[in-house]
Amino acid sequence: MVSFMIPGLAFLYSGLSRRKSALSLIWAVSASNAVCIFQWYLWGYSLAFSPTASNGFIGNLANFGLLNVLGDPSPGSPLIPDLLYSFYQMEFACVTVGILVGGIAERGRVLPAMIFTFLWMTLVYCPLACWAWNVNGWGYKWGVLDYAGGGPVEIGSGVAGLAYAWVLGRRQEKELLNFRPHNVAMVNLGTFILWFGWLGFNGGSAFGANLRAIMAIWNSMLAPAFGGIVWCLLDYRLERKYSMVGFCSGSIAGLVAATPASGYIHPWASVIMGIVTGAVCNYATKVKFLVGIDDALDLFAEHAVGGIIGLLFNGFFASHSIIALDGVNVNVNGGWVDHNWKQLYIQFAYVCATCGYTFVATAIIAKAIDMTPGLHLKTTPEGESAGLDEVEIGEFANDYIEVRRHFTDWSAFGDRMADSVASEMGGLPDLQKDGHRLRLEDPTLEIIQEKNAEIVEEPQPTPEER
């Protein structure tokens, strides 16, 4: 189920982009998945979860190439083997980089992005995962409550996406005018594929078929439901339309907030969290305008801000009674509802550490790659105008549309006939151009034109026949 989130991300990003760059985002998500699998097998799992590392910041290479990763009890739970846990955590990493590569939207080259993915996984994601989930990580030892990845997955991808977009630079101003998603149906499809996969993402983090897993799944339904409704209503107040993109955005924001919190809080708290997340993340989409960063797919507003909200809600509403439902974590304290007042500042400090480290480290990695000859992150202005599908991929998500990308290049008579007519008449008449525009706007005119053509082509009787 978690692996199924990868095509969900690809479809979501593709639908949110312009048609001319739709396939490039599907390619970027798919290729980053392959890069992440290789990195995780090579040394990613070892750097994140090796139990012999004691520095609290990052693991060592004791499990290089999954060496000695077999049937021992895993870091996540003594009930599942290490090898299974390594695979499950690999899918978390794949989803994280899949979210992150959305930062290249409509102007980023894919080869440098894949090199960036490998380095980012090694230098950013692995430390973040070590902090929160390694038995020797500083966050784990300090008592940070991060159920399924508010720090490594959500803040990691959202803040890193903002930093990458900052280094990458803005799209051309003409590309920002009248921007709208090219396929809202695909946005909806991607959202609900993600929602389905998220149930495995959060439910599976209880590491067993237990009541805590079911509670996490319930919370992963309630928070996005209320988040989607609130976001949609906030958009309605402006446009007086029930936006499908707005509903999907709010639902994803609710799922993001549920990631760190769903295994800690009661369902009633998830309702509150969904409402708060839908509102706050909606207004957070304005941050990119305030800081002047072209975060095209709102990675920061949805993933970073949503993850922060979920982590802080743990400080208030995490409950020992929910945590202990798995039968394993029976000695873990909750938040304010359990009168554990210090939990809130632990969560806040963890949020500050993950945000700060992620942004700075990501910006340094991206800038270093951008300064490497032949690996500049951004395509040329001409490539941006033509679209990444054409200049980077050479294929198109909707190839049948590409025949008439610029409709003024074709006439109502067909391309070859238009060329011959134009050459004989010294250029294409304005009337013919206007007729072509009308034909595209009103399909019924095509039938009328064909009937008129039949009347004109009907042979006239000779004088003898009369």
Word description of this protein:
By secondary structure, the protein is an all-alpha fold. Helix content is 65%, strand content 0%. The chain contains 20 helices and no strands. Helix 8 packs parallel to helix 10, helix 10 packs across helix 11 and helix 10 packs across helix 13. The longest helix has 29 residues. The radius of gyration is 27 Å and the shape is globular. About 10% of the residues have low confidence.
Which consecutive residue ranges, at least 5 long each, have pLDDT under 50? 410-418, 420-458
Mean pLDDT: 86
Report how far apart the termini are: 79 Å
Alpha-beta classification: mainly alpha
> How would you spell out the order of helices and strands?
HHHHHHHHHHHHHHHHHHHH
Helix content: 55-70%
Shape: globular
Biggest β-sheet description: none
Assembly level: single chain
Q: Report the radius of gyration as a whole number of Å.
A: 27 Å
Number of β-strand runs: 0
Beta-strand residue percentage: under 5%
Count the DSSP helices: 20
